[in-house]
Amino acid sequence: MELTINKITKPKGKEYFLSKKVGKAIMDYQMISEGDRILVAVSGGKDSLTLLKILRDRLSFSPVKYELLAVYIDMDEGFIHLQALKDYLKKNGYNYHIEKIDIPKDSPSERLSCFWCSWNRRKTLFQLADKFNCNKVALGHHLDDVVETILLNMFFNGEISAMCPKQILFGGKLTIIRPLVYIEEKEIISFANQQDFPQSYCRCPNSLNSKRAYIERLIKNLEKDFPRVKNNIFGALKRIRKEYLV
């Protein structure tokens, strides 16, 4: 895997402001170091493609140099037209790898849950990071995802926890990073609408009826009266008053 150097452009317009937030997250959590080999998990959607573009374009001015490998896990879910994603990655000069996961034909439908897909996709990403000698895995989770996870864990798991912006695994051999952690989904949507990202769609039967979808709708309703509710929930985990805990 070689450092991608072609088609790198300095961030401007909407990307400039998103890149600044990414840079702050990288600095705050020390996400990237010199010489890192970063596997970027690409789903074909707006979040992961925004992450991939920003990380690559930051190479035009960042004093810290790193390598990128875009990886798509093909689970045959119908999220995107795979050829369109390949064409986009080739056209823009990205190093990429497509990994096919075969879903057992005799699997009962109840097994094919959000947890099943997530667990198998994550397991495959870790295996590929080891195969391609990547020490970091970058995921496209944004601020909305983190806030939703906080409420999901409180409401349905009875615990206070969230997605970590940086999570060290396997004794330091691999680190998960989430550089979009300070960016709201609406900002990504606005940026993605200006890009030549391939069109994506989702046929997952759980996409509209999952607990996460319920929490997303709940937050949107709260925002109508309390516009800063997402930022307040996100910031709450940094302002824990232990003297008032049970």
Task: Give an overview in words.
By secondary structure, the protein is an alpha/beta fold. The chain has a single domain (14-244), classed as HUPs (Rossmann fold), CATH 3.40.50. It is 41% helix and 12% strand. It has a six-stranded mixed sheet with strand order 3-2-1-4-6-5, with helices on both faces.
Keywords:
six-stranded mixed β-sheet; 6 strands; alpha/beta; 41% helix; 246 residues; Rossmann fold
Give the biggest beta sheet. 6 strands, mixed
Helix content: 40-55%
Radius of gyration in whole Å, from Cα?
A: 18 Å
Please state how the strands of the largest beta sheet are arranged side by side: 3-2-1-4-6-5
Task: Identify the CATH architecture.
Answer: 3-Layer(aba) Sandwich
CATH-defined fold name: Rossmann fold
Q: Structural class, from secondary structure content?
A: alpha/beta
Number of domains: 1
List the helices and strands in order: HEHEHEHEHEEHHH
- Poorly predicted runs of 5 or more residues: none
**Which superfamily, in CATH terms, is the homologous superfamily?**
HUPs
Overall pLDDT: 89
Number of strands: 6
CATH class: Alpha Beta
Please tell me what the overall shape is.
Answer: globular
Beta-strand residue percentage: 5-15%
For the termini, the CA-CA separation is 51 Å
Please provide a brief summary of the model.
The chain has helices at residues 14-29, 46-57, 82-91, 114-131, 143-157, 185-192, 211-225, 229-236, and strands at 37-41, 67-74, 96-100, 136-138, 166-169, 174-177.
Question: What layout of secondary structure does this protein have?
Answer:
Blueprint: H1 14-29, E1 37-41, H2 46-57, E2 67-74, H3 82-91, E3 96-100, H4 114-131, E4 136-138, H5 143-157, E5 166-169, E6 174-177, H6 185-192, H7 211-225, H8 229-236
Parallel strand pairs: 1-2, 1-4, 2-3, 4-6
Antiparallel strand pairs: 5-6
Helix pairs in contact: 2-6, 5-7, 5-8
